[in-house]
Amino acid sequence: MSRELDREVRPERIHPACPTSALPIRIGGKWTGMIIISLLDGPRRFTELRTALGTVTPKVLTQTLRDMTRDGLIVRNDFAENPPHVEYDLTPQGRSLIMVIDAARAWSDAHIAGLLDARQR
Fold it and tell me: Domain span at residue 112?
């Protein structure tokens, strides 16, 4: 087999049924990591999250919170009080991503200058 053929993407590596396709890769997305960090000190309401995150739109925040709830990273707690309200909180699984976020931050601190330099070129 030639060296060039070894570099081709093997179909089994990108098959939709592959278990790795279920990984929460969206942690690298713009808002998931910031939501996790925002929830470190305890539950927050939607408007508190939106304020803390600044430029996120309600639509994007809603979708990200739904995705994170579906993936078991956060829990949505409904309070049937007067007035009713909803809070979002980290699950143990969501809290375990702090190590990943911290590692990504450390990598960024060490490599951001080179990354930005490469983007400019």
Answer: 3-120
Interatomic CA distance for residues 70 and 65, integer angstroms = 8
Amino acid found at 22: A
* Range 21-27 average pLDDT: 48
CATH number (domain holding residue 64): 1.10.10.10
Report the 3 state secondary structure along 57-97.
CHHHHHHHHHHHHHCCCEEEEEECCCCCEEEEEECHHHHCC
Q: Report residue 19 as tokens.
A: 């278990």
Q: Per-residue pLDDT for 25 more than 80?
A: no
Predicted TM-score (pTM) of this structure: 0.73
